[in-house]
Amino acid sequence: MPQPRVFERWFNALPTIDPETLHKEDQNCVICLLSYSSPSPASLQQNENPASENPIRLPCGHVIGQECLRKWLSPAPAGGNSNKCPLCRHHLFDAWPSNLAISADELMQRLPRYRHIPDPATHEADHAAPAVDPRDLELYRAFATQFVRYNDRGRTDRAVPPDLLERVQERLRQQRQRNGETAHGFSRLRETEERTRAVPPHDPEGIQERSRRQRQRNEELAQRLVLIRNEHRLLEIRERRRAIAREQAELERQHAELEDQNRALRGRLGHHDEPRRDTAGSGQIDLGLSGLRERLNEVDYERWRHRNLGQRHHRGR
């Protein structure tokens, strides 16, 4: 990863996005989950005038809040010491080195400047700790680590305390505690990183293709729904037609019985008025049969109309 000044130039060159141009589901920072019109958590923690969280677009295409992104990418201990996008894990720049690679002679020239670091158990260390920059302590630890490795190869320097590495590590721990750096501070960032580890990069063509297929499926479902409704109505019409046919058969049976009774009465009585009365009853039955025939014709028309409607939908598919 570049040095801090180079990192600042790179970070400040990232494009700022107008929140109004983002989709509704993208108008919240993926790290702090606040909308881009809300004050950033960093400005609230530093007791500054609350500033809105500006959305920044990374080279991979993802948009993240400016302050949360700075906290995520900044080197330890002030930041998350990451060089990847929190969403797609795309590498943005070279990683921050954990140790400084310098020559042994250069190391021996620099170490005397850091020999004055006091023992953490002394009163002097308590007063001196706040004045030590955490990044300097990282350098001290790297120097001391390389000094130990250097001495392991056979060279010694009695001017450097043998427990320098332990002192630096303890001082670094104390400094981080004073700065409020805990594992909980970045737990939400790490959880977001784990949840979004498998999220693919921005793929507009894939999104368009999925949208097209979804619209096609919706149209097919709508056509199937229309056909199901038509089939349901046809079933109702068939059931009504069967019921009317049963009524017609019953009326025809009654009509036949009345005709038989009429003929029997004519043969036995020989009167003129009685057949007329029986004929009037038969006329009422004939009228009922005519009404049934009209209802059957209406049902046949409805059935024909729905059959044609279903054929049109099948041809449309």
From TrEMBL:
RING-type domain location is 29-89
Record-linked PROSITE patterns: ZF_RING_2
* Segments of skewed composition (Basic and acidic residues): 188-215
- What Pfam families does the record tag this protein with? zf-RING_2
Going by the entry's taxonomy, the superkingdom of the source organism is recorded as Eukaryota
One GO term in the molecular function aspect is: ubiquitin protein ligase activity
> One GO biological process from the UniProt record?
proteasome-mediated ubiquitin-dependent protein catabolic process
Q: What SUPFAM superfamilies does the entry give?
A: RING/U-box
- Give the GO cellular component terms, alphabetically: endomembrane system
Disordered: annotated segments:
173-215
Q: What keywords are annotated for this sequence in UniProt?
A: Ligase, Metal-binding, Zinc, Zinc-finger
| UniProt name for this protein | Ubiquitin-protein ligase
- Protein source organism: Heterodermia speciosa
